[in-house]
Write a structure and sequence with these properties.
With 328 residues, the protein is of the alpha/beta class. It is built from six helices and 36 strands. The radius of gyration is 26 Å and the shape is flat. It starts with a strand and ends in a 6-residue tail after the last helix.
Length: 328
């Protein structure tokens, strides 16, 4: 069922330029939107796409309002991307695609687990003894919540998530390995979203913790006793080793790795595919990537890197030989 532009603006605000009765039957990108769909533009680099878009209406920032109005109907707002996010939420509510509170007949919920009546537990989920699921939380299919683990309110865990598997703990014993029982749990705050097949390991002694508002993508590994601060977001395939502490409002790009027992300050941004090998104590954007190249040149550069310590020593010796004897 379509929504009119007037209905959208009445619910979400913004400055509408165009007919409020215009019906919208879908949301799409600038390039793909049709004459009955709503789109958005986030920056000047998309000016050409904006001018050519066939969208019924475009959400735009004030600096692009003139061009957007020349093209056709628009909603002007200071944060178009945020506005579009809220449109998607309104759209989903309007079309009734949210999960209703229920426990699917195929789910296995231990009698000693506590599941809020407003939560939704999907097909083939497992909620073990002593686990707690908060109000309004949704577990998609095949989610496992281990014993004594806590999931807060209004969380969304996508298919295949495992919360509370054993952390990787073994003690060497004469050439073999002795298991260290993982006696902690996992505590997840409110408004957390965890992507498909992501694993959050239980703590060895104290708990692994994800604070309020954390957002994790698919296929992420969070090791035991990790702590992730409020509103931090991680893209797919990130790995965080045991006992690392990630601050609040951080971002970690896809396939990046944070080594164990390190600390990241609040507001640290890690580029995709970086390897964090030391603690980062100041906010900022950090990158640690060896640039891709054709293989032959990459091998030459890699070989040079192996000789850097030797070249450094030779340079120091040369500086010593050429140093002015009168210079202190």
């Amino acid at each position: 069922m379509p929504l009119s532009l007037g209905t959208l603006v009445a619910a979400l605000g913004g400055e509408l330029h165009g007919d409020p009765d215009t019906p919208i039957d879908g949301l799409a990108t600038l390039a793909e939107a049709t004459s009955t769909q709503l789109s958005f533009v986030t920056g000047a680099r998309y000016r050409r796409q904006l001018a050519q878009s066939q969208a019924a209406c475009v959400i735009a920032a004030p600096d692009l309002a003139a061009l957007a109005r020349t093209r056709g109907a628009c909603i002007v707002t200071a944060q178009p991307y945020l506005y579009f996010a809220r449109v998607t939420q309104l759209w989903k509510r309007h079309h009734g695609t949210g999960a209703a509170p229920s426990v699917h007949p195929s789910a296995v919920v231990d009698p000693l687990a506590i599941v809020d009546p407003s939560a939704s537990i999907g097909p083939l989920c497992v909620v073990e003894r002593g686990a707690r699921i908060g109000a309004g939380t949704v577990l998609r299919s095949r989610v496992t919540i281990g014993e004594d683990c806590v999931v807060g309110a209004r969380c969304l865990l996508h298919s295949g998530v495992v919360v509370g598997a054993d952390g990787f703990g073994f003690a060497p014993n004469d050439g073999a390995w002795e298991k260290i029982e993982q006696l902690g749990a996992v505590r997840i705050g409110d408004d957390v979203e965890i992507g498909a097949n992501t694993c959050i390991d239980r703590g060895a002694l104290s708990d692994t913790v994800l604070e309020d508002g954390v957002k994790l993508d698919n296929l992420i590994q969070i090791g035991h006793n990790v702590r992730v601060g409020r509103h931090t977001a991680m893209a797919a395939c990130v790995g965080v080793a045991g006992s690392a502490t990630i601050g609040a409002h951080c971002t970690i790009g896809g396939a990046a790795v944070v080594l164990g027992h390190l600390s990241l300050a609040d507001h640290v941004n890690i580029s995709a595919a970086s390897v964090v090998t030391r603690s980062i104590l100041k906010p900022g954007h950090y990158t640690g990537i060896f640039p891709i190249d054709d293989n032959a040149r990459w091998e030459k550069n890699a070989a040079s890197l192996k000789r850097l310590d030797t070249l450094r020593d030779r340079l120091r010796a040369l500086e010593h030989l050429t140093k002015d004897p009168n210079t202190p």
